[in-house]
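Hey, resending since the last one bounced:
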Amino acid sequence: MKIKATHEKMAGRIEQAADMFCARKLLNDLKMIEVHHNLGNVAIDSPGAILAQTVNLKTTKTTIKINAPPGTIGADQSASRYVQHLIRRYNEFAGADKTRGTKFSYGAISKNIETNFKAPWKLVAMENFGALCTYLQRRIARTRIAKSNSAKGHRSFSSFEEYSSEQR
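The structure tokens again:
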């Protein structure tokens, strides 16, 4: 009661019901609280409080993952693995090109797919699977390493059927 009276005197008003609501909201909803330049102790979860001069509460960021709906590339495991393979292959070939004028962005291919197909690749409809694969294969074929491989008679990527049979 003495602490409460002291704080009410410092705040210039008595504690209100909304204060408790705000305090609970801060403690429950905020993922990171930092108290700087504290001139007294901080009490958390009173009674049985933790008292400290400085309290840093931090949690890790959580991400929400949504399963791909039926009828999309993300819902078909073999199609999904093949598209991931093509994206990795493109990034491997394009990222290894030392003659690029700008720094290579590994995430740019996913953004380009989203721009061209109007959805992230996992959410592209299965009827567009062939078009997406052709798009990625053409991007791979335009890289310097793929052109060099082609000149030597080596292939830079396998077809979906070949890739699927290798994975079994």
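The chain has seven helices and four strands.

Sorry for the duplicate.
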